[in-house]
Design goal:
Helix content is about 10%, strand content about 30%. By secondary structure, it is mainly β. The chain has two domains: about 1-55; about 70-280, Fumarylacetoacetate hydrolase, domain 2 (Alpha-Beta Complex). The strands form three sheets. Strands 1, 2, 3, 4, 5, 6, 7, 9, 10, 12 and 15 form an eleven-stranded mixed sheet that branches. The protein has a four-stranded antiparallel sheet with strand order 14-13-16-17, with no helix packed on it. Bound molecules: magnesium ion.
């Protein structure tokens, strides 16, 4: 299933996208996507069918229950470009993932604006990432069992204010400005994507291809991350884990290509869709 959250006639609803994407069927009986995932994620009672053109997309989980868990450097080529930008020596060894937290007040749906925050940053950047949505309480997940805990996958844009990210000792502030978590357009349930996910992942700014890789190039796998985190941290249903971004972010160019007002960012992952947002 391709699941989405949307507004229709001023009401927030969840639904399933039709094959081909021309319409949406509402799923009844749940408060929102978090409630749907909490209760097992089975769509049984459907409501009306609405043409896709009549809905306003929201993020599939507009209000995640907790901050998103993110992986910092999880593609080798991105590790190299980041080290170049920060003028650090790059060791090449990545034995353990870098984890950090991204505050999210309200996630931004496809088609909604990304605030430019010109008063605090002149170095706003994009990062396309595969995000894993946890489906049931995960604690001490054994090797080989991570798939049982995955509800589905979506796309996020890990919007980052580089000046804040590098100025402060931790990335938290620079990653967490309002509107810095575009998510969507849909959640694709785990049964529809072969595991482990090996999906083409791309981003474009104003139509120019910037990032182009495949999720098979991730250094830490989805499996490794769920096993490792759940060994000491309970992952609740609805948890969003963003798996890191490939090379080609704005800070990786010489000179850097940061986002400006009016820029349109498209984040695309094979089998999931395109998350498209304009910088305000
Ligand atoms: Mg990132």
């Amino acid at each position: 299933m391709k699941l989405l959250t949307f507004k229709y006639k001023n009401e927030e609803k969840i639904g399933v996208l039709s094959e081909g994407g021309s319409s949406v069927k509402t799923i009844e009986g749940f408060r929102d996507m978090n409630d749907f995932i909490d209760k097992g994620g089975k769509a049984e009672v459907f409501g009306e069918e609405i043409p896709f053109g009549e809905i306003q997309l929201l993020a599939p989980i507009p209000f995640p229950k907790q901050d998103a868990i993110c992986l910092g450097i999880n593609y080798m080529a991105h590790a190299e470009e980041s080290a170049r930008y920060k003028k650090e020596a790059f060791g090449g060894e990545r034995p353990y993932p870098v984890y950090f937290s991204k505050r999210v007040d309200e996630a931004v749906g496809s088609g909604m604006p990304i605030p430019s925050h010109r008063d605090v940053t002149d170095t706003l950047d994009y990062e396309v990432e595969l995000a894993v949505i946890i489906g049931k309480t995960a604690r001490n997940v054994p090797e080989g069992k991570a798939l049982d805990y995955i509800f589905g996958y979506t796309i996020i844009n890990d919007v980052s204010a580089r000046n804040l990210q590098t100025r402060h000792q931790q990335w938290y502030f620079g990653k967490s400005l309002d509107g810095a978590l575009p998510m969507g357009p849909v959640i694709v349930t785990a049964d529809e994507i072969a595991y482990p996910p090996e999906l083409n992942i791309k981003s474009y700014v104003n139509g120019e291809l910037r990032q182009n890789s495949n999720t098979r190039n991730m250094i830490a796998s989805v499996e490794q991350v769920i096993v490792e985190l759940s060994s000491g941290m309970t992952l609740k249903p609805g948890t969003v884990i963003a798996m890191g971004t490939p090379a080609g972010v704005g800070m990786g160019f010489q000179p850097p290509k940061f986002l400006k007002s009016g820029d349109v960012v498209e984040c695309e992952i094979e089998g999931i869709g395109v998350l498209k947002n304009r910088v305000e």
